[in-house]
User: Fold these one by one.
Assistant:
Number 1:
Amino acid sequence: MPESGATERADRSFFNRDPVVVARRLLGQRLVRRYRGIRTSGIIVETEAYLGVADRAAHTYGGRHTRRNRSMWNIGGHAYVYFVYGMHCCMNVVAGRAEQPVAVLLRALQPEQRMDTMHRRRSAARRDVDLCSGPGKLCQAMAIDRRLDGVDMVSDNRLFVELLRRRQLPTRTIAVGPRVGVDYAGEWAQEPLRFAIAGNAHVSRPRPEAGNS
DNA sequence: CCCGTGATTTAT
DNA sequence: TAAATCACGGGG
């Protein structure tokens, strides 16, 4: 593998904190997926925070505890993968402390390793920037589906995060905006809970504006 | 802009 | 049991 081996894997303490902090700190880190002997990876360039019981846009709004959102009630570091619109999967990383059903949706990656495999899995993608520029796209490119719902990313070898930087990116390089596709959530739809690396070509549309803290 | 697509949720 | 919903993506 072309890895240096010195890369540090995100541990429990990385995830056991405020979801907004996790969402910002995930930017610039690496998501790794191992499947059938192939290691695909990408740099996380776009995230959204979901704040749990009080957040009308969250699947756990109002304390809902259903079969689908079961893993969102798990402790930080677990994956929450769900199926939506009859054909797509979306992947979240559970954050917060125990019994806080909060999570971070991974919305886009800058593909890094095995882009050939990603193109094979996503024939509709004509260009590299179409591979992982959306929550459903990245799941398809990385072979992430409901079989990975509930896995512990701190200990599982199939899906995990590698830390490429110890610090969060400089605040001015993080673009902030309202979350995508949650118009049903009333005032919560306007909250600035979407984060992206400013100027990165792999961020999904519409792009949040840079310059917001 | 519209529409597929089907599991999940929510209303009867 | 039935109806509505949906943290999306692709094509026109």
Number 2:
Amino acid sequence: MSKKVSIKDIAKLTNTSITTVSFVLNGKGHISKEISKKILDTAKEIGYEPNRMAIGLRTGVSKVIGLVVENIGGPFFGEMSKVIEAEAEKSGYRIIYCSTDNQVNKGKEAIRMLTQQLVDGYIITPFKGLEEEVLKLIDQGKPVVLVDGYFPGLNISHVLVDNYNSVLKAVNCFIEGGYRNIGFVTSDLDLIQLDERLSGYKSALISNGIKENPALIFKLPYLLDKSEGLKQIKTFINTHPEMDAILFTTNYLGVMGIICVKELGLHIPQDLAFISFDDTEIFSVYPPGITTIQQPVYQIAKYGIDILLSQMKGSTPENAATKLQIASNLIERGSTVAKNES
DNA sequence: ATCTGATAAATGACGTGGAC
DNA sequence: GTCCACGTCATTTATCAGAT
């Protein structure tokens, strides 16, 4: 087994000092051409690769970004992570991924682990209960950007979709199509994103003179297993035959909604008009096409990583938080065709 | 006095070995 | 059982010898 080579080995082989090798490899100092060439040749010959950990130890810069999301396996976060990774790589950064499942202890643990790894910056999907840890990071001067959420009242950079207006627009789409009894299926998670989606729903009803019916708002417990979740959604749909439209506030809820509708033998949009948050492939394929609120995933990710990179370069003044809420795109398909046309 | 080419030593966090 | 020096590894500062 060949042991890993360090600059020490190169120094020994070329009868120079460690310092000289380091200078040659990094183009610094004043080193003669002959010695430089000898060192570079030797380095190549023995397959030298810099030890990133040692560099980080010395410089305090790890060139690693910590990415904390709800679930790296989900379509939204998966797509977002791809963009972030690609952009980070252009600047020489690598990513460590963590999933929290929106659980406070997992979130804290993820941040603790990343801190131990001395990551240079953090991109975090925040939720209630993580305020203290995130503020601690900022206190230590670590760049932090929040994505897909934020902490109300705290001055921290964040990028997310405009949840309120996204749902407002979607519900208005139902109403313009003649639908009045609009169901709203969300999660019981205490997330600001979901709060704002609910606010958008309520505002749309109010501004159209429709009385809000609390019975048509259903909060599915987050930690249920899938079959139990499906059962509860089916029950919700069945117990409200007057409901003529339904909106799901996340992609996994939307997919579950499709399954329920199929299993109940309902027709979209004749029996039930349908909109889901997040445009997943299945929504474009499932007949007659499901109208979706398409999040600007690319932009959220791009802005998020750009803001973080500029903070890490120090080119952004301290305590100048950048806060962005980006408009979504309502993709209208067959599931929201107007009543009299269907 | 000034410039070149090179180096020793300090630095960073922390587990380990040896001394007491 | 406590404690400090040491090894890990690459970078950087301060510095030195020798040449101009």
